[in-house]
């Protein structure tokens, strides 16, 4: 079945060979209120090349490709695809022009098969029957041509994250994509899966596709791309060939200033603060289950849990945040078993940093000051059923001061804060324990789930420093992260969570990257000691 | 054409939105008035005059506004916690029935209580009856995730049939010439009139005091914080240590109790006995009032007076021009839709292109 005509290579493209631009962005500008997300960005993409779009979170990468794909309207600027202007704000036109997008998080329908997902939207809705046989033949042919093996009849729910991504790529190729945009494609992959993806991309380029690869990870950008375009605060600050570019220099171009390494990594091993003993948790989804997990967290030590998300992290974190109880086994904090009640854990000195700032960490419609006391609104910020507004507001003001929470003061709704400031509010709330002076409260346990996800480099360094400081003051830190760089930079000990099973926690230096990758993929997992 | 979220909702927007909604409502209703063949200006003038134009008009409006304030309050506090109690109508009827059962059957409770105690028993019975109706929806929601909109709405029909059964059976007034009407409340239990030769009764003060109290509780107390936190984001509230289930159950009971109280106050202040037409949908109109008030308890008082004025005014208007009183229902319904759109417009900006 022919869904729509293949985009014809323009005369320009044929005439100028490999360097003919398949895509040309000229002066793209996009504002959101006062924020300039893209500021006069001009870019060209040539046939057969991988262009890395590098930048910190919030640099404008996602906005730029959203404009390219028609999700957003640019305030100024034009886009040409294969020599013809692309109508703005029209995803269908972008698809028809041969632009395919692979989103960071899977956009596949879990309960449908691979074939259903790939064919979805390619057939006219008024036609009574689906031409599945033709679709299947086309899918198999496309898969073979590009070397992307999949089972057309497998349900997407059963596929691994890496396989799903392959289906997403196939879905774009099935629609005759000649330009492929990948938004942070390795964020959810193990190192080995990333490697497989890179070789797939090289194969696609050899076939003449052009690829835009969005990332903020320097290593993989240098590995996979031909050219690197660096965005900073909405501006295109540099375009350079990948070959011969050094990592350190690239980092400075991306951030705009040298980044100091975190200071004072603690090494003192204190007493055991928190113990998980043969913990079992049941749940409907894989991420909600734990199988016989044992772990001891010591004061003054950062223990990191590596692993691809959805392997039990949610269960582990919920357990240690007091949101869920273990179905078997015991958990103790400071020697005491605690009920599955957030208040009990907060009272026992647990500082909790959830992964979802907007939906779990803050109550967006309530003002900053009420969010600042949300964990301790009964003690110490109330008396006789009344909230002590004066005390609460002055605490919030001091908290914002001490943890540098900026954006409109303590009376604006928390949802108006930027991600970085929101995280500062959450971290500050957790670490200060309702005390306005640093010497009045020290958490015994810090549970940090993806604490730097989506933050810019400055905020990342800040969060890391806060954890290191608290650790030095005697907190036991559990860091759950998908970012191996973060884990290796901070952790004293590392354990890997896969399919609800936790490997033995070993000193960070005892792991090699490939061992970590293997464990994350579930191969050679050692049972917890 | 697309919707873009605005930043913070400015206080000015929050105040302008309901007024804009009222203006749009009147404009839409004007189309129906014109369709009925009546002069639009004169019709509105008559509605206004009938609702607010004289001492008598004001007294009737305030009488009508009293139960509306209470049902509006019942909806507003529940909605604040994202608990959608659509059952105020049934709670009002069961409250009224309970009030008569405590203060009317066999000359009161039959225990020969002094009047103040009997009055307290009547009020308590009504509030308890209303709260009781929220037990099942609250437990079903918090334990099994059953949608409270469905359970509270459907309970209305069950309650109305139950009330009908009682009015034709055990609680029927034998002297009512066969009309399905309950026995009358003891005369000593009736609420005093606020103004002579009008129907405005002390229930109005009760409603206003309750509204002020609800406002203060929501704003100043830990329980109020819990309600607002659960309503704004239950997941985040639970994470921070707010007892979500307990908060939801308490709000449900309070909401039901206030609606039940509305029934007692109607019986003690206006009708003296229960009939099946004692509420022309006060429970449902309360939802519109709560929305118009932006779920603010003090706003509920103002919105209730406005809606009551429209209803009373429409009654007197229809006697002068050939526009059916149903125009009041149209205005109330359109007001709800307009308010929903206005709320959306206050939070989002419509971008053409």
Structure description:
The complex is a heterodimer of chains A (529) and B (353). By secondary structure, chain A is α/β, with parallel strands linked by helices. Chain A has 18 helices and 23 strands. In chain A, strands 13, 16, 19, 20, 21, 22 and 23 form a 7-stranded mixed sheet that branches. In chain A, helix 15 (419-432) packs parallel to helix 16 (457-472). The longest helix of chain A is centred in the middle third of the chain and has 16 residues, at 191-206. The model of chain A is unreliable at 1-18 and 525-529 (pLDDT under 50). By secondary structure, chain B is an all-alpha fold. Chain B has a single domain, classed as ABC transporter involved in vitamin B12 uptake, BtuC (Orthogonal Bundle). Helices cover 71% and strands 2% of the residues of chain B. Chain B has a two-stranded antiparallel sheet. Chain B is globular.
**Low-confidence blocks of residues of chain A:** 1-18, 525-529
At the first level of CATH, what is the class of chain B?
A: Mainly Alpha
Q: How far from one another are the termini of chain B?
A: 5 Å
- Total separate domains of chain B: 1
Low-confidence stretches of chain B: none
Q: What integer value in Å does the Rg of chain B equal?
A: 21 Å
The amount of beta strand of chain B, in percent, is: under 5%
Strand order in the sheet with the most strands of chain B: 1-2
Instruction: Using the coordinates shown, work out and report the CATH topology of chain B.
Output: ABC transporter involved in vitamin B12 uptake, BtuC
| Annotation, overall tally of beta strands of chain A | 23
Instruction: Sketch the major β-sheet of chain B.
Output: 2 strands, antiparallel
Q: Round the mean pLDDT of chain B to the nearest integer and report it.
A: 91
- Number of contiguous helices of chain A: 18
Biggest protein-protein interface?
A-B, 34 and 22 residues
Mean pLDDT of chain A: 85
Name the structural class of chain B.
mainly alpha
């Amino acid at each position: 079945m022919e869904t729509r005509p293949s985009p014809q290579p323009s005369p320009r493209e044929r005439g100028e060979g490999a360097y003919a631009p398949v895509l040309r962005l000229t002066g793209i500008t996009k504002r959101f209120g006062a924020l300039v997300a893209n500021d006069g960005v001009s870019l060209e993409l040539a046939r057969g090349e991988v262009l890395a779009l590098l930048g910190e979170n919030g640099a404008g990468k996602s906005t730029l490709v959203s404009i390219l794909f028609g999700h957003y309207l640019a305030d100024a600027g034009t886009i040409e695809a294969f020599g013809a202007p692309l109508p703005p704000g029209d995803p269908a036109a972008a698809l028809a022009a041969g632009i395919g997008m692979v989103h960071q998080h899977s956009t596949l329908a879990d309960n449908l098969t691979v074939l259903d997902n790939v064919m979805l939207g390619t057939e006219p809705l008024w036609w009574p029957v689906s031409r599945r046989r033709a679709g299947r033949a086309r899918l198999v042919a496309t898969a073979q041509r590009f070397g992307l093996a999949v089972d057309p009849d497998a349900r997407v729910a059963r596929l691994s994250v890496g396989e799903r991504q392959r289906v997403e790529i196939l879905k774009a190729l099935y629609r005759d994509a000649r330009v492929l945009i990948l938004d942070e494609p390795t964020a959810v992959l193990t190192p080995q899966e990333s490697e497989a993806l890179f070789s797939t991309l090289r194969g696609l380029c050899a076939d003449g596709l052009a690829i835009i690869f969005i990332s903020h990870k320097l290593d993989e950008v240098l590995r996979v791309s031909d050219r690197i375009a660096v965005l900073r605060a909405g501006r295109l600050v540099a375009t350079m060939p990948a070959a011969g570019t050094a990592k350190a220099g690239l980092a400075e171009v991306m951030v705009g200033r040298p980044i100091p390494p975190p200071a004072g990594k603690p090494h003192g091993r204190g007493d055991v603060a928190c113990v998980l003993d043969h913990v079992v948790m049941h749940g409907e989804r894989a991420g909600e289950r734990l199988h016989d997990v044992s772990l001891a967290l010591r004061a003054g030590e950062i223990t990191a849990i590596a692993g691809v998300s959805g392997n039990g992290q949610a269960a582990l974190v919920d357990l240690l945040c007091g949101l869920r109880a273990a179905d078997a086994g015991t958990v103790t904090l400071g020697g005491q078993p605690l009920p599955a009640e957030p208040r009990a854990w907060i009272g026992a000195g647990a500082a909790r940093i959830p992964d979802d700032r907007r939906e779990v960490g803050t109550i967006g419609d309530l003002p900053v000051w009420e969010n600042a006391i949300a964990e301790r609104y009964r003690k110490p910020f109330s008396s006789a059923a009344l909230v002590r507004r004066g005390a609460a507001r002055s605490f919030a003001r001091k908290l914002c001061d001490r943890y540098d929470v900026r954006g409109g003061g303590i009376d604006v709704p928390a949802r108006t804060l930027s991600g970085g400031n929101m995280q500062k509010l959450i971290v500050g709330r957790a670490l200060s324990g309702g005390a306005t002076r640093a010497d009045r409260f020290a958490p015994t346990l810090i549970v940090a789930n993806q604490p730097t996800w989506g933050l810019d480099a400055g905020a990342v360094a800040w969060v890391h420093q806060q954890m290191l400081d608290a650790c030095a003051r005697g907190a036991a830190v559990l860091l759950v992260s998908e970012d191996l760089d973060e884990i290796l930079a901070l952790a004293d000990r590392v354990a890997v969570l896969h399919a609800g099973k936790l490997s033995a926690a070993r000193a960070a230096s005892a792991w090699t990257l490939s061992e970590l990758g293997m464990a994350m993929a579930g191969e050679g997992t050692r049972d917890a000691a | 054409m697309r919707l873009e979220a605005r930043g913070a909702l400015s206080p000015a927007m929050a105040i302008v939105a309901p007024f804009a909604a009222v203006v749009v409502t009147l404009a839409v209703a004007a189309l129906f008035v014109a369709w009925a063949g009546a002069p639009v200006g004169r019709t509105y003038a008559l509605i206004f005059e009938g609702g607010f134009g004289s001492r008598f008009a004001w007294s009737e409006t305030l009488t009508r506004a009293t139960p509306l304030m209470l049902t509006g309050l019942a909806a507003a506090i529940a909605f604040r916690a994202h608990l959608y109690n659509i059952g105020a109508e049934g709670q009002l009827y069961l409250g009224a029935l309970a009030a008569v059962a405590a203060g009317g059957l066999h000359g009161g409770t039959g225990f020969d209580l002094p009047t103040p105690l009997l009055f307290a028993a009547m009020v308590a019975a009504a509030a308890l009856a209303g709260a009781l109706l929220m037990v099942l929806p609250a437990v079903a929601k918090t334990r099994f995730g059953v949608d409270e909109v469905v359970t509270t709405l459907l309970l209305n029909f069950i309650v109305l049939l139950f009330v009908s059964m009682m009015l034709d059976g055990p609680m029927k007034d034998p002297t009512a010439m066969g009309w399905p009407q309950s026995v009358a409340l003891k005369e000593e239990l009736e609420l005093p009139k606020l103004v002579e030769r009008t129907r405005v009764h002390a229930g109005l003060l009760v409603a206003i005091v309750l509204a002020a109290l609800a406002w203060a509780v929501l704003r100043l107390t830990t329980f109020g914080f819990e309600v607002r936190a659960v309503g704004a984001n239950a997941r985040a509230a639970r994470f921070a240590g707010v007892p979500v289930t307990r908060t939801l159950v308490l709000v449900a009971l309070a909401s039901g109790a206030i609606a039940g109280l509305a029934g007692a106050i109607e019986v003690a202040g206006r009708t003296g006995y229960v009939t099946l037409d004692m509420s022309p949908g006060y429970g449902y109109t309360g939802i519109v009032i709560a929305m118009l008030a932006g779920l603010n308890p003090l706003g509920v008082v103002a919105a209730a007076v406005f809606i009551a004025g429209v209803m009373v005014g429409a009654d007197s208007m229809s006697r002068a021009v050939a526009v059916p009183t149903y125009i009041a229902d149209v205005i109330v319904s359109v007001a709800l839709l307009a308010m929903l759109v206005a709320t959306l417009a206050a939070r989002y900006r419509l971008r053409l292109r």
